[in-house]
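pasting for ref
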Amino acid sequence: MSKAVIFIIEDDPGIQELLSHSMSKEGWKLLYAKTGEEGLKLLKSKKVNCILLDIMLPGIDGLKVLKKIKEIEQCRNIPVIMTTAKSEDSDIVTGLELGADDYVVKPYSPKVLIARVRAALRRQEEDGLNKDVTCWQQGELKLDAARHAAFYGGKQLDLFATEFALLKHFLSNPDIVFSRNQIIAAIHGTDYPVTDRSVDVQILGLAENSEKRET
């Protein structure tokens, strides 16, 4: 997706310049916001394909911004990659549970970050191409890929993008046991650098939080 729009919510001008230099070579269009408030305002009028979101922002912090992004209907399935200096397990878990697709700790390699953005864009594009492959069902659990909706007992589940992708992968491959690496490759691609901890948290969130998100 060479013409993808990458939205960078980051208040550090040095990092903005670094990302501008490295990511412009990918052919992506870059949008910037220095605060969470500015970012949320722009999302109401701009269509983006991926969001890079810092946590330590002036005003509303990145985690609160992430929560608000996921509450916007048209933004729910936009991949969000957290970029931050906060590296504690509790910070990573919180970001993933709020719906982040990935979590990159500063200082990071621009090449690694670009690889993760590519993976997120590829998954988004594949989801669009596979809309004709519609439904899977296991017991009371049903997933409709065309509508990007999942149901349990007739009630729709409120899943984040990565949780939906995980559930789709499991339902479309019944009775198969997958390793962490196989799950990562299926959801994000073979060149996706991610920790075992991230996979564990996302699967645990899918298992524990689905019932809480029923509507």
